[in-house]
Amino acid sequence: MTAPLRLFNSLTRELETFHPVHPGEARVYSCGPTVYNYPHIGNMRAYVFADILGRTLSWKGYALTHVINITDVGHLTDDADAGEDKLEKAAAERAQSIWDIAKHYTEAYWADIDALNIRQPARWSVATDYIEPMLAFAKEIAPKHCYELDSGLYFDVSTVADYGRLARASTDEGEGRIEAVEGKRHPADFAIWRKTPPGEKRQMEWDSPWGRGAPGWHLECSVMSGKLLGFPFDIHTGGIDHREIHHPNEIAQNQAFTECGSLDDAACSGARVWMHNNFLVERSGKMSKSAGEFLRLQLLVDKGYPPLAYRMMCLQAHYRSELEFSWDGLGAALTRLKRLVMAVEALRAQVAEPVAEPEGGWTQLRAHDELDAVFLPYLARFDAAVSDDLNTPVALTVLEELLALKKADPREKLVAAAAMDTVLGLKLTTLTRSDLRLRPKAAAIAEAEIEAALARRKAARAEKDFATSDAIRDELAAKGVEVMDGDPLGWEWKLGS
90, 100 in Cβ contact below 8 A? Predict the structure, then answer.
């Protein structure tokens, strides 16, 4: 009746059938943002992916506990464990409190989460709330796995089995991007605790057995995931960039803390399954946060695109595939979303009572019990798609085929679409066509003025006064409004960017 859920495990490089550590539960940890700047849309792809994973686990009937961390200390300016702390650097450059910097960008990130209809996790874990547990963790592993230098406490990667297996590092030097620190035993060794250099004062620093300072970036995720989910938990997610250094270092710490052995047993890594989304590729160079007007979600909104158009763009590609961003591609995703919204709007107009979501949300089994036999093949194909390593491109196609089905009960069709959308998260049962109009921030005309002009134009056309109709259209065009008489989607107007 329901397809087995199969997920690609980056640690084994294989598709594996999901078997939860705790029957009926799914425990997931996702690497969250470092809140020193706004997230760009490439960053946000990771959270759309993690959201689809969580929604799919709920769809399959698991009780989900999802944790996402907020890194407000410890992450350095170079992802390879080198340079200044990103938050300290941002605070110094802007002459602001590091706590104010972290608060501002955390709230901006949460706003993007909400705009993309990403479900709230069970817990947002903030790194600075876990300093004492980090110190306890470090004290536990230090005697067997760490050594002290003038700059801090370092983890000796030779003390655990299979270091770097996740990254598939092919040389003794690993990835070769770890900071060169005098006295390190191995090039890949990494900081557990960083001492504040003599003569310096950090805004975020704490006392430790190794001197006053701050935790290394990798330590926080091991501590928070183990504390909140328990070792081993089910799934750890992140961007593919984490697969090379950050996650191998997490795994090494987890092995040390749990005194676990070879990674032939995936549970020794701390999580049974490690999942990574691929990069969002953008050719103009505006994905870099040093590029000034970099590609953040707000820029898309300022140019008139609703955030869910970007979510649709992400769903059109498999999470393990590279996704190339372009404005034309975003426009095509918006058009596809509009078609879905129009189809569901038409169904809602035919159904007297709104379709209520069952308590606890839709699952595949609840939807199966609710629907007539004519819809069950579509439901089965949709379930098979999302169960096949979250194959959202195929799932979208199944939904479109369902909505195109002729001579089917509109309420039943609406129920089926609503159930499928609990996985896709496109808000199809509440969005309207007008929600998806292009409205650039720079537009010099209010929507009410556009609607009033269109009403006058409609009246003129009804009286065959085409001269007046054309004049109103030209007036609107001069203000950047395109009247879309021939649009097959039935949109009345859009604002040019």
Answer: no
Rounded CA separation 115/125 (Å): 21
* Spatial contact of 261 and 69, defined as CB atoms under 8 Å apart: no
Q: Model pTM?
A: 0.90
Pairing type for strands 63-70 and 123-126 reads: parallel
Give percent above pLDDT 70 in the chain.
Answer: 90
Task: With both helix axes pointing from N to C terminus, report the angle between 307-315 and 41-59 in degrees, rounded to the nearest 10.
Answer: 70
Two tokens, residue 428: 């199809």
Average pLDDT, integer, range 270-298: 85
Give the pair of three-digit tokens for residue 155: 């983890």
Range with the poorest average pLDDT among 109-123, 143-157, 292-306, 381-395: 292-306
Instruction: Provide the CB-side half-sphere exposure for 416 (13 A, CA).
Output: 32
pLDDT digits (tens, 9 = 90+) for 10-62: 999 999 999 999 999 999 999 999 999 999 999 999 999 999 999 999 999 99
DSSP character at residue 295 = -
pLDDT at 89: 87
Cβ atoms of 169 and 175 closer than 8 Å: yes
ω into 232 cis (within 30 of 0): yes
pLDDT at 304 over 60: yes
User: Which of 252, 239, 250, 246 has its CA nearest to residue 30?
Assistant: 239
Please give the biggest Cα pair distance in the chain. Answer: 89
pLDDT the model gives residue 493: 63
What is the CA 71 to chain-centroid distance, rounded? 15
CA distances from 459 to 150, 456, 469, 472, 476 (A): 81, 5, 8, 11, 16
Mean predicted lDDT score pLDDT of the chain: 91
With beta carbons less than 8 A apart as the criterion, state whether 128 and 106 touch: no
Between the two ends of the chain, the Cα-to-Cα distance in Å is 48
User: What kind and span of H or E run contains 65?
Assistant: strand 63-70
Residue 347 in tokens? 């169904």
3-state secondary structure of 413: helix
Question: How far is residue 116's CA from residue 119's CA, in Å, rounded to a whole number?
Answer: 9
Please calculate the CA angle 400-406-410 and round it to the nearest 5 degrees. 85
